[in-house]
Design brief:
heterodimer, A: 314 residues, mainly alpha, Rhopdopsin 7-helix transmembrane proteins, 81% helix, elongated, B: 124 residues, alpha/beta, Rossmann fold, 5 strands
């Protein structure tokens, strides 16, 4: 891939940059998949896949002759190129829709329009894999550019207070911006050697930025999920407290009324009754202490109430 | 003399103790039921009582105290209806009960407080 950087960077500098980019990508992917296994959130899986797709595409294209369009002797490479192009479109689409859900508040690029762009890009890629003709490659480049620009606009429009989403949005925006310049080289629109190398350089920088931002985004997502898991544990504990309190309140009331009856009918047992009342007083304090957890309970989750209630009644 | 209080409580021990305390402390007879069907079966007697004290959660797959409240109102019940519940104030069933404007008493109430509250209604 060093050849991509051409004369803009020295071999050592470009090797360091690419090594850094690759290392960050690997770390990001491992992190995303680990978090996905733990939290089962689709965004993390899609982010990991998008990083792999991006890297795969870069490595893939690095194996190609510079003027991809004119090489005619290796249809397998052309098919692989279409596959990697389709893969990255799909992964970015999945990442974008699963993470951001930007459509309800967006008038101009509707979900239907965005899906149509995806279907078009993917269809052309599929056709390219089956029949790797040069026309299909041009069409694929064109449809990819439409997809990248649409995604970029959605990234710019997307608003979120969450840091993880901000990082992913920045990463996606920079990633698709870099990707959108790439077809310019491959379709031969840019013929100048310097501009060609410059665009390649932009691509390397964007993939590195995408990797770094993805890593930060994945870390932030992980932190958010850990926070959420911690809060969820506390809520569950609070719910268990309140649930137990609710279940003992009826027997508690029964004992209290029974003591009243006994006091009336057996006044000679005053000492024993006083002991029971003192104990009930202590239980009242426990009851009041548990009542503080009421506000922490999510009352929409009623499953465990039913389970514990029926367990006790059985 | 007919009963002046209706209790609907799914816990058998509490149901019996409530009726006994009413009789013993207030000198009033009480009807006590564990299920809504039993209460419906004694509709005439129930409608003649001055007060109905309902548990809100009558068990899984059962009607709630709020449903019974509406049934009593539909039947033209003119007595006071109160809920006696062990659930937290923020519990959805308790919220539903408070939305209909009924008085809600939280278990465990002191026996004397409970008796005073009942007395204040039926002696009016």
């Amino acid at each position: 891939m060093n050849s991509l950087l051409g004369s803009l960077l020295t071999t050592t500098q470009s090797s360091v940059l690419l090594g850094f980019s690759l290392a960050i990508c690997i770390v990001s992917c491992v992190l995303c998949f680990s978090f996905y296994v733990k939290f089962k959130h689709q965004s993390l899986l899609n982010l990991g896949l998008a990083i792999i797709a991006f890297q795969f595409m870069m490595l893939m294209y690095d194996q190609m002759p510079t003027q991809f369009l004119v090489f005619k002797d290796n249809p397998l490479l052309k098919r692989l190129a279409h596959f990697s192009g389709g893969l990255i479109v799909y992964c970015f689409y999945r990442l974008f829709t699963s993470s951001f859900q930007p459509f309800p508040s967006f008038k101009f690029i509707t979900e239907r329009f965005y899906k149509a762009v995806i279907v078009t890009a993917m269809s052309v890629r599929l056709a390219g894999i089956i029949y790797p003709h040069v026309i299909l490659f041009r069409l694929a480049s064109l449809s990819n550019i439409v997809f990248y620009i649409t995604t970029l606009i959605l990234c710019i429009r997307f608003k979120s207070a969450r840091r993880s989403m901000l990082m992913l949005r920045l990463g996606c925006g920079i990633g698709v911006m870099g990707l959108s310049v790439y077809p310019l080289i491959r379709t031969g629109i840019i013929s100048s050697d310097f501009l060609n190398e410059f665009v390649n350089y932009i691509l390397i920088v964007t993939i590195t930025a995408f990797s770094v931002l993805s890593l930060i985004g994945a870390l932030e997502l992980g932190r958010e999920y850990l926070d959420r898991a911690e809060k969820s544990s506390l809520r569950n504990m609070a719910r268990a407290f309140i649930q137990l309190r609710d279940l003992v309140n009826t027997p508690f009331q029964t004992i209290d009324l029974s003591v009243q009856l006994l006091r009336q009918r057996h006044p000679d047992e005053n000492m024993a009754l006083q002991k029971i009342e003192n104990s009930l007083q202590t239980l009242r304090r426990v009851d009041a202490a548990l009542a503080k957890y009421e506000s922490s309970v999510d009352w929409n989750q009623t499953e465990s109430f039913i389970e514990l209630d029926s367990d006790l009644k059985n | 003399m007919g009963a002046s209080i209706t209790f609907l409580e799914d816990n058998e021990e509490l149901r019996e103790v409530l009726a006994e305390v009413t009789r013993s402390e207030l000198g009033e007879e009480a009807l006590s039921f564990g299920r809504f069907d039993d209460l419906v079966a004694h509709r005439t007697e129930v409608l003649q009582t001055k007060m109905a004290i309902l548990d809100i959660n009558l068990g899984a797959d059962q009607v709630t105290g709020v449903d019974v409240f509406h049934w009593l109102k539909d039947q033209g019940y003119t007595g006071k209806i109160c809920f006696l519940t062990g659930h937290a104030k923020a519990h959805p069933m308790v919220q539903a009960a408070s939305e209909i404007g009924a008085e809600i008493w939280a278990k465990p109430m002191y026996a004397t407080t409970l008796c005073d509250a009942i007395r204040s209604v039926i002696k009016k």
